[in-house]
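Appendix C: a fully annotated inverse folding record. The material below is reproduced so that readers can follow the format used throughout the book. The structure is listed first as tokens, followed by the designed sequence.
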């Protein structure tokens, strides 16, 4: 077989693997890629409007690797962002940038935590959020390091350090306890 024949066979085989007909590999422009495969990756980054690309810009390099379902949810958000108030729009842009910087593992964890939070009653979710906001930055970082932001989850995670054990308790209980070495002095807040 000649080099030209090997090259043609390689292109034909590759086009079959990718779902394009062999006629396309030989230069026939009339054949189009099969619709079922294309629908799995649509919309491509190039298919988005300028406004959608502006909102979703942090995802440009990752976009074409995502599932169609994930893309659809981000496109819906991108369509809502321009209609938001300036403060909400800035918050959305900030969160999009933060999400784009997360590793796939951290994204999976964030999705799981979101689903868990949605299972709580609204008043319970609000109480947990208020408790989290009362915590010091050190307590919050310990909880984040344990992979959870729930006080009970940190308590059951087998926290090894004293700080982690303190972080697992609501701040109101910490404020009532005297500090070791100085029983009259309440714990410092940072």
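Designed amino acids, in order:
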């Amino acid at each position: 077989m000649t080099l030209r024949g090997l090259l043609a066979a390689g292109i034909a085989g590759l086009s079959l693997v990718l779902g394009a007909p062999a006629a396309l590999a030989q230069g026939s422009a009339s054949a189009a890629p099969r619709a079922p495969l294309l629908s799995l990756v649509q919309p491509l980054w190039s298919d988005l409007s300028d406004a959608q690309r502006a909102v979703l810009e942090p995802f440009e390099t990752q976009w074409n690797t995502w599932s169609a379902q994930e893309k659809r949810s981000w496109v819906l958000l991108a369509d809502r962002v321009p209609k938001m108030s300036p403060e909400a729009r800035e918050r959305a842009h900030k969160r999009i940038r933060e999400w784009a910087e997360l590793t796939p593992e951290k994204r999976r964890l964030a999705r799981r935590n979101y689903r868990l939070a949605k299972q709580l009653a609204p008043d319970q979710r609000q109480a947990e959020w208020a408790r989290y906001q009362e915590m010091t930055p050190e307590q919050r970082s310990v909880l984040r390091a344990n992979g959870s932001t729930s006080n009970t989850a940190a308590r059951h995670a087998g926290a090894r350090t004293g700080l982690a054990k303190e972080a697992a308790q609501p701040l109101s209980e910490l404020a009532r306890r005297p500090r070791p070495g100085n029983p009259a002095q309440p714990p410092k807040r940072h």
